[in-house]
Fold:
Amino acid sequence: MTAPGQQSVARHVLPLLSLIVCVLLWHVASSRHLHLGLVTFQNVPQPLEVVHAAWDLFQSPKLQNHLGASLGRVASGFLVAAVLGVGLGLAIGRFRWVRETLMPPLEVARPIPAVAWIPLSILMFPSSEGSMIFITFVGALFPILLNTIHGVHGVDPRLIASARSLGTRRWAIFARVILPAAAPSVLTGLSIGMGTCWFCLVTAEMISGQYGIGYYTWESYTVQNYANIIVGMLLIGLLGMGSSALLHRAGQALMPWYRPGGRP
Amino acid sequence: MNAILSLSELAPEVSTGRLDIDRVSIELGSGADRFTALDDVSVNIAPGEFVCLLGPSGCGKSTLLGALAGHLTPSRGQLRLDGAPIGGPDPQRGLVFQHHTLFPWLSVRDNVAYGLRMRGVGRAERHAQAMTWLKEVGLEGFEHHYPGALSGGMQQRVEIARVLINQPRVLLMDEPFGALDALTRLKMQELLLALWSKRRMTVVFVTHDIDEALFMADRILVMSARPGRVIEEIIVPAGRPRSAEWLTGASFIEHKRHCLALLRDPALTVPLARLSPINPAAESADPAAYAD
Structure:
């Protein structure tokens, strides 16, 4: 048994410790040029090199442009995907005829990876900005859509029956019962969608000619600047983590009644 | 307990809440799985009467209740409330399930006030009435809790308040206390009888518990399965308020023995697959019943 104070300390120390150990392992593996047969760390840049590269990037005036461009693209793609995914998901989940009309083309489009959309998106969108937003949109759409549909299907039919017995009219059922009942699933979809949005960023910004964290990462690869690649990777990871945390906070604020994995 | 039950002497006479079940048959399921859940049932229920539907699982008692609520449409026959055909769900016919259907995202007070909100009643008036009803069911002080934070018995109290705030002519209850422990169940039975004696309305109460039926009802309709039919009607020969004497008397035991014999009849049992149409777990439930 540990005291509550100790527990809360442990709660903060353990994640930090885990990160430190990861970096240490990386340092040891890369500085000793570890060769493990299947995997080799001979050419992997060391943490200190990456820190230097990161420092250079943070000093550079380009950082703001990189960040601004990427955040704008992810935000736009995610927002469109959220509105479309939740809206379509509610309709598909609730009405059979909408499901039967829309699901076949969506099911065909779903397994297509974002990178395969690049040529078509360049052809379809007159601006490269539009095609990049489209790629991040494609990445986020399906998790949001499928989780919303799943949430609507999971609504207890007795809740709907009760609501109708209490005088709820047809369209009000949507706003009063289905949307709030599906909300936890929708939030899961949004949070996975946010992740896949960042996931597709490098793919999207292959099209870019100038700015973006994904572009920075891709460009570093083409000029073989390996430390910079890792800086870009870590930046994408951190930004993705931050935006997921924001979503999580927003979900908690909007759904005070919902506590995943147990009762409040 | 006497203080509560003595209120029944003040019970107002009611003139609304007459139910006519006129040669009603209901079929559930689709295709090859289609079966007759209820077969040619005719019952008349007087305004303010407390009727229990007693029978084994799958005898169609919940199906009949679902039809009275307006969630299932009879294949044949007609259901009327005070002479008007029942055509769909309506707050006039309040429905309570075995497991609560409170909205988890609304506070206890907002759940109770929900029906008023749907009628366009203003916020202050809604909240005042909800508080009155919460007091009535003994949940003062819990108005800001979410349903998930309450015990099963408390959740059913909220559910009952949420239905009664609409001043229904008929209260339809589908094994409402079936999931509660024995002591909580007894308390809830007393609470319901107290509420009913204060504000008399017609109650149709589904149960498979013989003691519960004999304790609560004016009249018991014993049902059989395959197909669902009313096989016997028992007028409970006990006055109100019901006393402990009735619960332990010779007449009670005699009635209980009779009901047991009726329910034990092997012809009345059905396979487990056919459960309540209101139960989301029942495979045989007709999903169309809830499509709007």
